[in-house]
Design goal:
By secondary structure, the chain is mainly α. The chain has one domain. The protein has ten helices and three strands; from the N terminus they run αββααααααβααα. It has a three-stranded antiparallel beta sheet, covered by helices on one side. A hairpin with a 2-residue loop joins strand 1 and strand 2. The N and C termini lie far apart (about 55 Å). The relative contact order is 0.15.
């Protein structure tokens, strides 16, 4: 029994580790998950959404944001143009040179996608070191924002390139986000309160003796 339980825990930890790594590469390599209007024009990855907001708000230095963008820019450059993206051209590649002057209404109307993108990026980075629920929470927020945008979006927009779209890779992200969560069954059992055992009332037994 001990061998089977230890092997089961090892199998679960392997699944969590693999799912966390796959989710990390989906986010950091900027695999397109969705398409939605943002301050940079049209964003298709959580990092693109996060970077546009961080540069506009000037919370982090620009080199830190470039560090987030660079791995995906290299992969996209090799796949599309067979060239390596230059560090100095990152902001222009992602249309981030004028996001400070862009209207913030676009992001305020899509707060769920913005907050979910923040959590998705943070969860991908933290998940490499330790499994957490941030990636799942962020992915669910993004999905809810996309559903809300699809239901409440303006029907007058007939341009396909400007419409909200969800790529099939989003399903992979959802599966990885849920599979990377660490469940401690023993801890749940320990926290669960024990059922009280019914005991005879002392006063009733004394009254019977009288």
């Amino acid at each position: 029994m001990a061998t089977s339980s230890s092997s089961r825990r090892g199998w679960m930890s392997n699944i969590q580790s693999i799912a966390s790594r796959v989710y990390f590469f989906l986010i950091i390599l900027q695999i397109p998950l969705f398409r939605i209007p943002c301050r940079a024009g049209m964003c298709s990855t959580p990092i693109h959404v996060t970077s546009s907001q961080l540069i506009a708000s000037e919370i982090f230095p620009v080199p830190v944001i470039k560090g987030l963008l660079y791995p995906g820019a290299i992969v996209n450059g090799l796949v599309n143009n067979r060239t390596v993206a230059r560090w100095d051209d990152l902001l222009s590649i992602y249309n981030l040179t004028s996001v400070k002057e862009a209207s913030a209404v676009t992001d305020l109307q899509r707060l769920e996608v913005l907050a979910g993108s923040y959590f998705s990026v943070a969860g991908a980075l933290v998940g490499i070191l330790k499994p957490s629920r941030m990636s799942m929470f962020g992915t669910l927020l993004v999905i809810w924002g996309l559903i809300k945008e699809g239901i409440l979006g303006k029907p007058g927009n007939t341009d396909p390139s400007q419409s909200v779209y969800v790529y099939p890779t989003m399903l992979i992200a959802v599966l990885c986000a849920f599979s990377s969560i660490k469940y401690d069954v023993k801890k749940v059992r320990r926290i669960a309160p024990a059922r009280p055992i019914a005991k005879p009332v002392a006063s009733s037994s004394k009254s019977k003796l009288k």
